[in-house]
Design brief:
Length: about 180
């Protein structure tokens, strides 16, 4: 037998909600300490984050299929001559009701719910398509794109073939991970 102590503390101010919300907070504390971290102090800030993450998890599949998650590009500049060396691809999600959802929130949920590989593939495809259009318009000339890849994606057997396919389809585009 392996024994592992768990401790969960739920801090709930009656002014913060109803008895039902207090019971929900206690339940979340028990679930988190049983299946998550061995020690947890649960308070309303953690509760609010947990509720946001649950909502994000519910809405993420629709955001992926509808194109609500888009790419933005951040210039990468060399330190010596301050020239643009390329563009870093960044995911952005603008929600019609919630406004901008930070990547720190939706990327973690995407990884937990099994959407991260699909999200990464789609972002790479979108970024390369945009960069190809810019090259066709001669706005960028030779372009280098940097893309962040999560450890989960690195282990996925599809990553290398998809990156190779992108590189072969756009020979004037350099891809960096």
């Amino acid at each position: 037998f392996i024994l592992s102590p768990r401790l969960g503390i739920c801090i709930f101010d009656p002014a913060d909600g109803t008895a039902e919300q207090a019971i929900e907070a206690v339940t979340r504390t028990v679930v988190q300490t049983t299946f998550g971290t061995p020690f947890l102090v649960y308070n309303r800030y953690i509760a609010e984050r947990s509720i946001r993450e649950d909502r994000t998890a519910e809405e993420l599949p629709d955001a992926l299929s509808s194109g609500a998650i888009t790419v933005e590009f951040q210039p990468r500049v060399t330190t010596g001559d301050h020239k643009t060396a390329g563009l870093e691809v960044l995911p952005r999600w603008y929600h019609s009701d919630r406004g901008s959802i930070p990547p720190t929130e939706f990327l973690r949920v995407a990884e937990q719910k099994g959407f991260l590989v699909d999200l990464g593939r789609r972002l790479r495809d979108d970024a390369v398509a945009l960069a190809r259009d810019w090259q066709a318009d001669e706005l960028l000339g030779d372009c280098r794109l940097w893309m962040n890849v999560a450890p989960l994606e690195l282990c996925h057997p599809e990553l290398i073939p998809s990156m190779t396919e992108l590189a072969e389809a756009r020979p004037h585009l350099s891809l960096g991970l």
